[in-house]
Specification:
The protein has 104 residues and is mainly α. The chain has helices at 3-19, 24-50, 55-79, 82-103.
Length: 104
């Protein structure tokens, strides 16, 4: 438990003794909200630490896509014409988009 949260718990317990039973539920609710905020903050912090760097995997994918696109566009243009070139371009864009959205 963080020092700040510990101090807030101690202050809540001390205030509980002073205010009486009529304000006790509000004190407890406020403290529970504070604990939930701390849990959310720690969960986001852990998720950020565990999340891999997003930019690093994209560079090899982009370079690989360009490297594969050149011969595919040549073959598609020679055999299927403009329709083949458009199909190859759409396929490459879809692969890159699916990879980018899956990696997040």
């Amino acid at each position: 438990m963080s020092d700040e949260l510990r101090e807030e718990a101690e202050a809540t317990l001390a205030a509980r003794a002073e205010v009486g039973q009529e304000l006790e539920p509000q004190l407890v609710d406020r403290f529970v909200d504070r604990v939930e905020q701390e849990i959310d903050r720690r969960a986001r912090e852990l998720a950020a630490q565990r999340r891999p760097a997003h930019n690093a995997p994209m560079i090899p994918l982009a370079l690989g896509s360009l490297g594969i696109a050149i011969p595919l566009l040549g073959i598609a243009g020679g055999t299927a014409g403009l329709a083949g070139v458009i199909a190859v371009c759409i396929a490459i864009v879809l692969v890159n988009l699916l990879w980018a959205t899956r990696s997040r």
